[in-house]
Amino acid sequence: MEPVSKYAAKTAFPVPIVRMIVTDDRERVLILRRDGTGHAHGEWCLPGGKVDYGVTVEQAVRDELREETGLDCLAAEFLFYQDSPPSESGEMHCINLYFVCRTAGEMKINHESSASAWIARDQPDAPALVFGNDAALGRYWASVDAERGPAPCAHPDAGDRPSGWT
């Protein structure tokens, strides 16, 4: 049986992948439509890629983000990992490392993508994401909610009173 991935043929161990969550000032997340990579052609995913041998994870985040989007990574915070064992024999076993990134620069996609889009959390027409990125994005948005805590409750009779007054 031929391996599904050229990388699976070369390695019998998991491949580390970095995935970047980049947000705009409206809290939308950047996604890319894959093109010409041989994996999930035409599908949408978060920016990211393999961590090459001899390259630190931090440098891979910066390199992949710049390569795929033209954006400079000013800061990256590790969020969580996601283990993605192969669903079929011969496929890659990936360990996805998710980072939220603060960026600067002008967005310009490379040859690995045919389009980019910004998606909102509850956007009904948002495209499905591959590589488990949809589950990861749900986990990211849940963590954002947890950090913010519950929304403040407004008393219906509060009128113009300063907050904290009863």
Summarize the structure.
This protein is an alpha+beta fold and 166 residues long.
Oligomer: single chain
What is the H/E string?
EEEEHEEEH
Rounded to the nearest angstrom, the distance between the terminal CA atoms is 72 Å
Briefly note the structural class of the backbone. alpha+beta
Largest sheet: 4 strands, mixed
Overall geometry comes to: globular
Give the CATH class: Alpha Beta
Rg, rounded, reads: 19 Å
Mean pLDDT: 85
Helical amount: 10-25%
Number of strands: 7
Write the layout of secondary structure elements.
Elements (H helix, E strand, L loop, with lengths): L14 E8 L6 E6 L9 E2 L2 E3 L6 H13 L2 E13 L9 E11 L8 E7 L13 H16 L18
Parallel strand pairs: 1-6
Antiparallel strand pairs: 1-4, 2-3, 2-7, 5-6
Would you mind describing this structure in some detail?
The chain is of the alpha+beta class and 166 residues long. It has one domain (15-148): Nucleoside Triphosphate Pyrophosphohydrolase, CATH 3.90.79. Helices cover 17% and strands 30% of the residues. The protein is built from 2 helices and 7 strands; from the N terminus they run ββββαβββα. The protein has helices spanning 57-69, 133-148; strands at 15-22, 29-34, 44-45, 48-50, 72-84, 94-104, 113-119. The strands form 2 sheets. It has a 4-stranded mixed beta sheet, with helices on both faces. The longest helix has 16 residues, at 133-148. The radius of gyration is 19 Å and the shape is globular. The relative contact order is 0.23.
Tag the structure with descriptive keywords.
NUDIX hydrolase; NUDIX_hydrolase_dom; 4-stranded mixed sheet; single chain; globular; Nucleoside Triphosphate Pyrophosphohydrolase; disordered N terminus; NUDIX_hydrolase-like_dom_sf; Nudix_hydrolase; hydrolase; 30% strand
